[in-house]
Design a protein that fits this description.
Pfam families: CBM_20 (PF00686), GWD1_pHisD (PF22973), PPDK_N (PF01326). The chain is of the alpha+beta class. It folds into 6 domains: 123 residues, Sandwich (Immunoglobulin-like); 204 residues, no CATH class; 110 residues; 149 residues; 208 residues, no CATH class; 159 residues, ATP-grasp fold, B domain (D-amino Acid Aminotransferase, Chain A, domain 1, 2-Layer Sandwich), CATH 3.30.470.20. It is 45% helix and 14% strand. It is built from 32 helices and 27 strands. The protein has a 6-stranded antiparallel beta sheet. A 5-stranded mixed beta sheet has the order 4-5-1-9-10, with no helix packed on it. Strands 2, 3, 6, 7 and 8 form a 5-stranded antiparallel beta sheet that branches.
Length: 990
């Protein structure tokens, strides 16, 4: 066939008796990662024949389906294959050799033998199972001539050892709940009893996991001798749905709870009026008594489906119905046309009961309840989808495929947003049953549209890869043709909007959308100020792409935080196959739209890095190191096993920015941090340091000296004096070096000791210090002693005289910030790592007026990355400076400025998700709030003139301080309105 590729695949692999092999992959022909494409066993190996569109880019893996229904995937990365334009080909693969190069051997049409024994042709359009049945991992269906259900049961083993609370309650209840309605009732009981308590997330998690395993057949449902028609299931489902919807509308619902609730909804049956009727789903009874079907088929329908459905309905009934439908439609004309038609109608009714209809069927069910705008959005989506499918089948010209694909994604966005808005009003307490049933349909359509966006984004990524992927996009940037980025960025905007509609960090999603839209509209200029337009466009985009990737990573981290332990506990207790337990969370991640958004971000970031010529990491401290790689969660005392010897390079998952590298061990020679971090954070500064430590009263800031107040306070005192002359100093380019210093005072060394004496606590203080000097880091002893010490010090209060003295220095409505120049309190073990006895450590307290900055910055007057003495490097964040000093995930603005030539170079654009601001609602109100940042509205991102002017001003101030203090400086400050404030400076570690 023209523009088609027929591929005969053979896998050389042996499996255990009762197991079989399937393929899952990225395209519809390969099941779109959700459906099994079966391989047929032959004497030559496991084979199948598949038809693809020419030049398709496909990814796939072979999967073993065990006789218990569990799946075992090949190890390693996805197999990747780029198909030719047309032709017939054969290839041979080896199990687990996912990196092997699959050679395509051309075949003549005559050689393409797909008869029994040589191959098995799979056509997804014929008897294609519903998504519900496509995920079935339970026992295969056997057609029965009599009531043989009990003889087909398999016994699970329960293990309640170690269980407590909700998990114990659920497992014990499951032991006595053989059929589906009783299992649904367990979930109802857990949810209704727990949603008002502190364990509501746990209740939702266990319910979601339990229902998923029931719907996929890994927890089997059996008859129990009772007789409850499907209306019982429907009524229980309505109770569960009502509780979930009420909880969803609560203001204090957590993002994690929203995420888990969305996984419960598709597992509930419908409770439309026809299913809550006293005798629902009666059509199958009439079918079983027809006279135009063979007796054996009649008995099979009666005992396998009809009687079972009306006594103890369960998910296996839909599986059996689809198996019967496949049987009676396999050979057209074999069975009565009227019978087949009637059975198809019943199949649709049963799918409706299990909420297992296709997306189009689900959408059709809400059509009558939509207003004019909603109907228009619905029709537009269905029309776009139809055009997209037609284009995909009729052409191989990429542009002609992507255009309708993109229109479908856009129309899906509009339709889903319409449905979400319709659901925003919440569920009224007096809502009639019909309204609740329709709301369930709306909810499932909204979730179904999210699931379908996964498919569309997957197709888009395949098309993008086929056009050249990251390399093609990067080449277009180099040639300054960024029009090719419009669709990929548009797809990312749509993907992020899908996450927003799902309730995942909506403010963050909105800010990312705004930025991506702004950068798409802005386009690429030849120059931005005095900088290369291509570089600025790429750096600006990189910041937002990094932010987008961080959004997806945080979602994944949340799933990994809340699901695996609960899955492990419940899986072990319920006797679920180990492989299903192990892969549960990964499957949830890979099946969600977040996975496609993450893949798209990764591809675009690769293109950006290629265009910039940069690597996939930033260097905080340059140098060479040789040592053993050891992975740890954080840099804390005791994180390294005492058995580890020799030089160590730490691979650290997370950091707060306040860590002391040597606190975890003196043999650490390097750190690889798996998150973004400001280069000039405390951790970065201390890493550079590691590479090369009176009497009471109040001292005015200009009078502070190192001997009485510590180096930090003394430096601030000198800054106060220098600020008075700074407005007379200019750089070589005529830029004023003027700055201000917030007013302040110091409680000198000895102030704490004086209050200890007054309260007769000196002996207790010294006793705890002695224990701290000798206790071990491991075992939590040090933490306990530090807690005692903190409680003792927290009980002290400055004297009335000190309070009054400070009150005379500052205005009565001033907001104050209290700082320390010592770091002994930063982290247990840092002081000890430095070899400083606690009794010799002293601390002064610096009190300064709190500012409300627009921007905060850290300056290094010598470039910390390449040691260039001619450059001042600044890292800048929106709002308060804690964002820079701490380990906040993200990147600041980075600007490098020449001391002598005035040249300003943008090194990076900011992408921190939040800014810290002082609320300032009333006098002396110092409450700090967090606001989501939209960088498309920040002058430092969008205004090249402002960026250059600020860079030159900061450079002038930094160079002035470097000369006055006689060495390179590490400077912290902020911008308030048009004024630059310097809050501290200290020697820069080199």
């Amino acid at each position: 066939m023209k523009h088609k590729v027929r591929l005969q695949v053979r896998l050389d692999h042996q499996v255990q008796f009762g197991d079989h092999l399937v393929i899952r992959g990225s395209t519809k022909e390969l099941g779109s990662w959700t459906k099994n494409v079966p391989l047929k066993w032959t004497q030559n190996g496991w084979v199948c024949v598949l038809d693809f569109k020419g030049t398709d880019h496909i990814e796939f893996k072979f999967v073993t389906v065990n006789k218990d229904g569990s799946l075992v995937w090949e190890a390693g990365q996805n197999r990747v294959l780029n198909l030719p334009e047309a032709g017939h080909f054969a290839t041979v693969a080896t199990w687990n050799a996912t990196q092997e190069n699959l050679e395509l051997q051309p075949l003549d049409e005559a050689d393409d033998n797909t008869e029994e024994g040589n191959g098995y042709e799979y056509d997804a359009s014929e008897a294609d199972p519903s998504p519900f049945v496509g995920q079935w991992q339970g026992k295969p269906i056997s057609f029965m001539q009599s009531n043989e259900h009990r003889s087909h049961e398999t016994q699970r083993k329960w293990d309640t050892s170690g269980l407590q609370g909700l998990s114990l309650k659920l497992v014990q209840a499951d032991q006595n709940a053989r059929n589906w309605w009783r299992k649904l009732d367990i979930v109802r009981d857990i949810i209704t009893a727990s949603l008002q308590g502190e364990d509501r997330l746990e209740a939702l998690l266990y319910s979601a996991i339990y229902l998923k395993w029931i719907n996929t057949g890994q927890i089997s449902c059996f008859e129990d001798g009772g007789h409850h028609r499907p209306n019982r299931h429907a009524e229980i489902s309505r109770l569960i749905f009502r509780e979930l919807e009420r909880h969803t509308s609560r203001k204090d619902i957590s993002p994690q709870e929203v995420l888990v609730i969305r996984k419960i909804h598709p597992c509930l049956p419908s409770f439309k009026a026809e299913f809550t009727a006293s005798v629902p789903l009666t059509r199958i009874r009439d079918i079983a008594h027809r006279n135009d079907i063979p007796r054996d088929v009649k008995l099979q329908i009666k005992h396998t489906i009809q009687n079972k459905l009306h006594r103890n309905a369960g998910p296996e009934d839909l599986v059996a119905t689809e198996a019967m439908l496949a049987k009676i439609t396999k050979n057209p004309g074999e069975y009565s046309e009227a019978f087949v038609k009637e059975f198809k109608i019943f199949h649709q009714e049963l799918k409706d009961f299990f909420n297992a209809g296709s997306l189009a069927e689900q959408l059709e069910s809400i059509h009558e309840s939509m207003d004019e705008y909603g109907i228009s959005a619905l029709n537009s989506f269905l029309e776009c989808k139809k055009n997209m499918d037609s284009a995909a089948e009729s052409t191989v010209v990429r542009e002609e495929v992507i255009k309708p694909l993109f229109k479908t994604m856009e129309s899906l966005n509009v339709l889903r947003e319409t449905i979400v808005k319709g659901l925003e009003s919440g569920l009224r307490n007096d809502a009639p049953d019909s309204a609740i049933a329709m709301r369930q349909k709306w909810r499932l359509c909204e979730i179904g549209l999210e699931d379908y966006s996964f498919v569309l984004l997957s197709r888009f990524l395949n098309e993008l890869e086929a056009m050249g992927g990251a390399r093609w996009l990067a080449a277009n940037v180099q040639s300054k043709n960024v029009n090719s980025w419009d669709d990929p960025l548009g797809a990312l905007i749509i993907g992020v909007h899908q996450l927003k509609l799902s309730g995942w960090k909506p403010e963050e999603c909105g800010a990312i959308e705004n930025e991506l839209i702004a950068w798409s509209k802005k386009g690429l200029s030849e120059r931005e100020g005095n900088e290369d337009g291509k570089t600025i466009w790429t750096l600006r985009l990189k910041a937002t792409l990094d932010r987008s990737k961080r959004l997806t990573d945080e979602y994944t981290e949340e799933l990994l935080k809340i699901f695996p332990q609960k899955v492990q506990i419940l899986g072990k207790a319920l006797g679920i196959p180990e492989n299903s337990v192990r892969t549960y969370t990964e499957a949830e991640i890979r099946a969600g739209v977040i996975f496609q958004v993450s893949k798209l971000c990764t591809l675009l970031l690769k293109a950006v890095r290629n265009a910039l010529g940069s690597e996939g990491w930033d260097v905080l401290v340059p140098g060479a190191a040789l040592g053993k790689l050891v992975q740890v969660e954080r840099i804390v005392p005791g994180s390294l096993p005492s058995s580890v010897e020799g030089p160590i390079i730490l691979v650290v998952n997370k950091a707060d920015g306040d860590e002391e590298v040597t606190a975890a061990g003196r043999n650490i020679v390097g750190v690889i941090l798996q998150q973004e971090l400001p280069h000039l954070s405390h951790l970065g500064v201390r890493a550079r340091q590691a590479r090369g430590a009176s009497s009471g009263g109040v001292i005015l800031l200009p009078d502070a000296e190192t001997q009485t107040s510590g180096a930090k306070a003394a430096a601030c005192g000198r800054l106060s004096s220098l600020s008075l002359v700074s407005d007379k100093v200019y750089s070589d380019q005529g830029v004023l070096a003027s700055f201000r210093v917030p007013s302040g005072a110091v409680l000198p060394f000895g102030s704490m000791e004086l209050e200890l004496e007054k309260s007769n606590s000196t002996e207790a203080f010294r006793s705890i210090l002695e224990k701290i000097e000798t206790t071990k880091l491991e075992g939590g002893e040090l933490d306990a002693l530090c807690h005692q010490l903190q409680e003792l010090i927290s009980s002290l209060k400055p004297s009335k005289d000190i309070i009054e003295s400070i009150g005379r220095i500052f205005p009565s409505n001033a907001r104050l910030i209290v700082r320390s120049s010592a770091n002994v309190e930063d982290l247990a073990g840092i002081r000890r790592a430095a070899g400083v006895p606690q009794r010799e450590a002293s601390m002064a307290v610096l009190v300064q007026e709190m500012l409300s900055p627009d921007l905060s910055f850290v300056l290094h007057t010598v470039s910390p990355t390449n040691q260039d003495n001619n450059l001042v490097e600044a890292e800048i964040a929106s709002g308060l400076g804690e964002t820079l000093a701490s380990g906040t995930r993200g990147t600041p603005w980075r600007i490098s400025s020449g001391k002598f030539d005035g040249q300003v170079q943008t090194l990076a654009f900011a992408n921190f998700s939040e800014e810290l601001l002082v609320r300032g609602a009333g006098p002396a109100d110092g409450e700090v709030i967090r606001l989501t940042v939209d960088y498309s509205k920040k002058p430092l991102t969008v205004d090249s003139v402002f960026r250059r002017q600020l860079g030159q001003r900061l450079c002038a101030v930094g160079f002035f301080l470097e000369r006055k203090f006689g060495c390179p400086q590490d400077v912290e400050g902020c911008l308030v309105g048009k004024d630059i404030f310097i809050v501290q400076t200290r020697p820069q570690p080199l």
